[in-house]
From TrEMBL:
Annotated Leucine-binding protein domain residues: 43-360
Entry keyword Signal: yes
Name listed for the protein in its UniProt record: Branched-chain amino acid ABC transporter substrate-binding protein
InterPro entries given in the database record: Leu-bd, Leu_Ile_Val-bd, Peripla_BP_I
Organism: Terrabacter terrae
Record keywords, A-Z: Amino-acid transport, Signal, Transport
PANTHER family found in the cross-reference section: AMINO ACID BINDING PROTEIN, LEU/ILE/VAL-BINDING ABC TRANSPORTER SUBUNIT
Residues annotated as signal peptide: 1-22
Family: Belongs to the leucine-binding protein family.
């Protein structure tokens, strides 16, 4: 899938309320901190997440949004462009500390979009905090990340303390499932989210199980699910394991509804599961394309495809950092700039609370139909 992406095609995104509002000579009036300042030149922002490996699609979706934001910014600031430095973690927490050090040591990097995954965030963010390098994650949803007192941590989407209850509510109220089963993949993200769903479903849960990332044989879990009589299954984990899991469940004759969350909202889940993915429900604190039509149009013009999971959030995270650069902020002053940021983005009003959490949170449900994720609306 990555080979089909056209990353170098420039487009105009004039219709979008994006980036800093630049004027001639580099003077800007940027949202958040207010006032005008001379933009610093030769600055970089970083993109930290999986760009290769089994979870690469999710990172590429974000990177696409970041590149679109850079296109818009650099078009307005042709004499003072910002470049992107990629830190490909492959979604592996063990690689995160070394990549964080690499970003910290590059003094031209004034902010990071990411880390993209919760496990790598837990591993890398202590170093970013110590160095005073701002991180704005467009996708890491583990609630505990905001509880560490990191002054550099910000998140442009709702966390799993919102997504978990929303998924449980959907299972109870929309699916009207009476016998849900819950499986997690033991990751920082997957187990954390599944535990919240377990708590909210309470005594209705008829069984629990844990699998491992990179596992391919789920026969033991399939047997447990079938013997429990489950009419719905919530899976906390990522697409590479979700696809063979649902396929093996369907091959064994299980007829219940497969429910997962944002880590599975990846086209590879549908492609690898085939017909077994039909009817699956995926929750996500990411907006459907019709919420941001101007952004969707610009994205499709650049990449010849609709925006995907967290593309808009990647755009918004990058835009905040670019607004800071346009306002003359450096690495140390970027923290206060982001703290006070309050501006409409393509996905929501971009504003943070004292812990770096988004102040505007929505969770949507998507269903797999005809080989695509189709919005089923907001879960309220």
């Amino acid at each position: 899938m990555r080979s089909t992406l056209k990353l170098a095609v420039p487009i105009a995104v004039a219709a979008l309320a994006l980036g800093a509002c630049g004027t001639k000579g580099g003077e800007t009036s940027a949202g958040g901190a207010g006032g005008s300042a001379k933009a610093a030149c030769d600055q970089k922002i970083g993109m930290f997440g999986a760009l290769t490996g089994p979870n690469a699609n999710l990172g590429i979706y974000i990177q696409n949004g970041v590149n679109l934001a850079l296109d818009d910014y650099n078009k307005k600031h042709a004499d003072c462009k910002v470049t992107l430095e990629n830190y490909d973690s492959q979604g592996d927490p063990t690689q995160a500390p070394a990549l964080a050090k690499k970003a910290i040591d590059d003094k031209k990097v004034v902010g990071i979009v990411g880390p993209a995954f919760s496990g790598e965030s837990k591993a890398a963010d202590p170093a970013f905090n110590e160095a005073g390098l701002v991180t704005i994650t467009p996708s890491a949803t583990n609630p505990k990340l905001a509880d560490n007192g990191w002054k550099t941590f910000f998140r442009v989407l709702g966390n799993d303390a919102t997504q978990g209850p929303a998924a449980a509510k959907y299972i109870k109220d929309t699916l009207k499932a009476n016998k849900p089963f819950v499986i997690d993949d033991a990751s920082e993200y997957g187990k954390g989210l599944a535990d919240i769903v377990r708590q909210d479903l309470g005594s209705a849960v008829v069984g629990n199980d844990t699998v491992q990332q990179k596992q391919t044989d789920f026969s033991a879990s399939v047997t447990k699910v079938k013997s429990s009589g489950a009419d719905a299954l919530f899976y906390g984990g990522y697409a590479p394991e979700a696809a063979p899991l649902v396929k093996q469940l369907r091959d064994a004759g299980w007829k219940g509804t497969f429910v997962a969350a944002d880590g599975v909202k990846d086209q590879s889940f549908i492609d690898n599961a085939g017909p077994a993915a039909d009817g699956a429900i995926v929750t996500c604190p990411c907006v459907p394309a019709d919420i941001a039509p101007d952004f969707a149009k610009a994205y499709k013009a650049k990449y010849n495809q609709d925006p995907n999971t967290y593309s808009g959030e990647g755009y918004d995270a990058a835009t905040i950092l670019l607004d800071g650069i346009a306002a003359g902020k450096d690495r140390s002053s970027m923290i206060d700039f982001v703290k006070s940021y309050d501006k409409k983005g393509v996905t929501k009003q971009l504003k943070f609370d004292a812990k770096g959490e988004s102040s505007d949170i929505k969770v949507f449900a998507y269903t797999v139909q005809g080989g695509k994720f189709v919005s089923a609306g907001e879960i309220k």
